[in-house]
Design a protein that fits this description.
12 strands, alpha/beta, globular, EC 4.2.1.24, metal-binding, porphyrin biosynthesis, 10-stranded mixed sheet, TIM Barrel
Length: about 325
């Protein structure tokens, strides 16, 4: 096809034509809204580096969940910040832990809302790492047992899905085994299959109080330079029983999302992380870009790359835009 016989602009003349041939759609059904839950009473704290994102105590979740429900969002993912931390992150699987209480509170307000729980130890350990420390390093196999306990405790509390984000080897298999043994074979696992050791997590670590107290997470999270390794990680999780594969972060790794989409038939999720959100918010505040258009363009790009599900702090804003 050559000009002048073929003129691509013919199909761009007006919004009706553009909508008719649009290849990628973004709807609320694709979105998951992250929530931070803290211990205490009457707590609603804005995260300074994430305007519009708050940390809630369980007693104040009711109004937030009502808004999420009324906006038509289908799912939330919970991150808990406990009142006390220890070396092994024991509050992560406490029967009356902050996430466990939050699940119950949410289900009373919106039983149909899908509640996903992040399964990791970093918010709960005194050292801030995602596993058990032994001889100065994160011990992979000891950590697996703790993660399994956390996943089962979330399922018992009423979670609809668990999402291990720790990046320990073999954790999907161990969690699947533990869930099945406890009578939760129906609970799906959304694995953070491809989680890079990224600088874009900074604002989240403020919100979740989960920064490591020594060293970093490069010994278990992935090297940003690698994509073939991402395919190996995803393949392992599929073999171990993952139901959904996640890539995190999203926009800096659109090529990785696309590669996973090509290689696997499983649903693909992508996490538009705190740093991605904060950059758009900051640039919008300064007037350097149109915040709303940048928000929508960024999410469409993640969908276009192949993500079926997007975890994003923009979910409520997208819902309000669509409702206009």
């Amino acid at each position: 096809m050559f000009f002048p016989e073929y003129r691509p602009r013919r199909l761009r003349r007006n919004e009706t034509l553009r909508s008719l041939v649009r290849e990628t759609e973004l709807s609320l059904n694709h979105l998951v809204y992250p929530l931070f839950v803290v211990e205490g009473q009457h707590v609603k704290e804005e995260v300074s580096s994430m305007p519009g994102v708050f940390r809630f105590s369980v007693d104040l979740l009711k109004e937030e969940i009502k808004e999420i429900k009324d906006l038509g969002l289908p799912a939330v993912i919970l991150f808990g910040i406990p009142a006390k931390k220890d070396e092994i992150g024991s509050e992560a699987y406490a029967k009356k832990g902050v996430v466990q209480k939050a699940i119950s509170a949410i289900k009373k307000v919106a039983p149909e809302l899908l509640v996903i729980t992040d399964v990791c130890l970093c918010e709960y350990t005194s050292h801030g790492h995602c596993g058990i420390i032994k001889n100065g390093e994160v011990d992979n196999d000891l950590t697996l047992e703790q993660l399994a306990r956390v996943a089962v405790s979330h399922a018992r509390a009423g979670a609809d899905m668990v999402a291990p984000s720790d990046m320990m080897d073999g954790r999907v298999a161990r969690i699947r085994e533990a869930l099945d043994e406890a009578g939760f074979s129906h609970i799906p696992i959304m694995s953070y299959a491809v989680k890079y050791c990224s600088s874009f997590y900074g604002p989240f670590r403020e919100a979740a109080e989960s920064a490591p107290q020594f060293g970093d997470r490069r010994s278990y999270q992935m090297d940003p330079a690698n994509v073939r390794e991402a395919l190996r990680e995803a393949a392992l999780d599929v073999e171990e029983g993952a139901d959904i594969l996640m890539v995190k972060p999203a926009m800096p790794y659109l090529d990785v999302i696309a590669r996973l989409r090509e290689e696997f038939n499983h649903p693909i999720a992508a996490y538009q992380v705190s740093g991605e959100y904060a950059m758009i918010k900051a640039a919008g505040k300064m007037g350097w870009l149109d915040e709303e258009r940048a928000m929508m363009e960024s999410l469409l790009s993640i969908r276009r790359a192949g993500a079926d599900i997007i975890l994003t702090y923009f979910a409520k804003e997208v819902a309000k835009k669509i409702a206009k």
